[in-house]
Write a structure and sequence with these properties.
Layout (H helix, E strand, L loop, with lengths): L8 H5 L11 E3 L4 E7 L5 E9 L2 E7 L6 H14 L7 H15 L10 H6 L10 H11 L4 H15 L13 H5 L3 H6 L7 H12 L15 H9 L6 H10 L10 H10 L8 H8 L6 H9 L13
Antiparallel strand pairs: 1-2, 2-3, 3-4
The chain binds a DNA duplex (15 and 15 nucleotides) through helix 6, helix 11 and helix 12.
Length: 309
DNA sequence: GCGTCCAGGTCTACC
DNA sequence: GGTAGACCTGGACGC
């Protein structure tokens, strides 16, 4: 698998929390990213990538013989998940220019992204399907990360089909649409999110909603955001977070964690207003959300000064 | 062991 | 358009 230059698997995998959610598996020591992937034929394969000379090595295992076309489909799913197709050159050009303004002292409010430019950060781990990203986004709202993990694990365990390893994959829209709201409350323990999850699955399963088309649409981000906000349970944060995973970085997708983390990083005693956050990253234009996210996650990658408690 | 708070928000009613 | 209050769960915390 050919990767863009520069590319760092660990940096992309740990770009946000998805690698920590089922059905992803990440072995940080061996640098192996793996998961079950459902193919268009309905077969579920176990696919994985590891760093290799010139890029990444891809491996897939299935019950029975895997055709070349099936292997290509699984490989494409992981390439898509690693955002290998995303062109970050415009972001890097702008970030380099702004970095010069920051270091010259003209714009001290800009984030220090030297590490990100040096290591090629900016690719965010996605799911093989936009549906999976949307469901997981709903599961991150108004709860702790521990609860998000629990809800997503239960979705996979109770409705996902397994690959040859036996680990359940992510459920299909059809599988999720077939369950009543009560199931999401009582079995998934999703609380008030239950009707949102079921409605989303039903709309996608019945063809009313084509989330996958959002990857390639030429619509402006505002139009996509408006469509996402029309979905039950998708407020400003959820819509902007999904836009981020679609490679649209003009919005900040501020949540309680990013607000608190950025305030701490910048030594603010109080969390600034959203207007202030918008001002800090406005020079990045259509890349404002990515610049913000990279600043917020600087410490995850062992960069920058140690964060105050 | 128990009660309270709140976390990677959203929706509705009301002004 | 702005805001208060309700909404599920489960982990952390204080007592």
């Amino acid at each position: 698998m050919v990767t863009p230059e520069p590319f760092d698997l660990d940096l992309t995998v740990r770009s946000h929390g998805w690698y920590d959610l089922a059905p992803w598996r990440w072995d940080g020591e061996r640098q192996v990213l793996a998961r079950p992937v459902r193919l268009s034929t309905g077969r579920v394969v176990d696919a994985e990538v590891v760093p290799a000379p010139g890029g990444l090595a891809f491996r897939a295992a299935a019950r029975g013989r895997l055709s070349a076309a099936e292997a290509r489909e699984a490989e494409a799913a992981l390439a898509r998940s690693l955002a290998l197709d995303e062109d970050l050159a415009p972001f890097r050009t702008r970030a380099a220019a702004l970095e010069r303004e920051r270091t010259s002292g003209r714009r001290p409010e800009l984030p220090d992204l030297r590490w990100a430019l040096g290591r090629g950060a900016g690719r965010l781990l996605r799911s093989p399907t936009v549906f999976e990203d949307a469901v997981k986004t709903l599961c991150t709202t108004n709860c702790s990360w521990a609860l998000t993990r629990l809800m997503v694990s239960r979705l996979c365990e109770k409705m996902g089909e397994s690959g040859p390893r036996g680990d359940p994959g992510f459920p299909t829209p059809k599988a999720m649409a077939g369950r009543p709201e009560r199931f999401y409350r009582e079995e998934i323990r999703a609380g008030y999110r239950a009707p949102y999850l079921r409605a989303l699955a039903r709309q996608v399963a019945e063809g009313e909603l084509d989330l996958e088309a959002l990857r390639t649409t030429t619509e402006p981000p505002e139009a996509i955001s408006k469509r996402l906000r029309a979905l039950a349970g998708f407020g400003p944060y959820a819509a902007e977070h999904l836009l981020r995973l679609l490679g649209r970085h003009g919005h900040l997708a501020l949540d309680s964690w990013t607000r608190a983390t950025l305030a701490r990083r910048r030594g603010k005693k109080r969390v600034p207003s959203d207007r202030t956050f918008l001002r800090w990253y406005a020079p990045y234009g259509e890349w404002a959300g990515l610049a913000m996210w990279l600043e917020a996650t600087t410490a995850w990658h062992g960069e920058g000064p140690p964060e105050p408690p």
